[in-house]
Amino acid sequence: MTTANWPPAADLDPVRRLHALAAGVPGAVITEGEIEADYAEVWPLLADLDGELARLVLDMRGLRVTRIDGDRVEAVARSRFGMRARFDGVLRPGWIWLQSRFILMGVAATPCGEGRTRVAFTGGIRIPGRAALIPVGVGRAGRRVLGRLEARVGSWRTG
What we know:
Layout: H1 14-23, E1 30-35, H2 39-47, H3 49-56, E2 60-69, E3 72-79, E4 84-92, E5 95-99, E6 103-111, E7 117-126, E8 133-134, H4 138-158
Antiparallel strand pairs: 1-7, 2-3, 3-4, 4-5, 5-6, 6-7, 7-8
């Protein structure tokens, strides 16, 4: 065996990658579902960080991208309670990973058959100094994001 073939590369779609990454974060909860719409319709809504994504995540009053450098993103979010958070993250096709000092959010999407897109969401409150999340309400929030996304895709289609 040559070193060029070792270690073997894992070919994971963005949703599986989110599951793998979240598996290493104690307390991380993933909500996953299928949206009855093509990936080409779903992903632009999710990737619009300071537009659509900020409207889909109910805990955010707003999210403003302050810097983009390749796939690296910096943003400032304001919660519905008025608190601010500065996020550093990555935005790639099918993949969003944003984290601040106290908050983590991941979103992934991948095509899963004709006219369908698999979407996964995770997030939570980070505990400074520990590699753990407090998953308070994350499952419920994830289900709301998926529901709002599906409704938004439907209204976007009808204009």
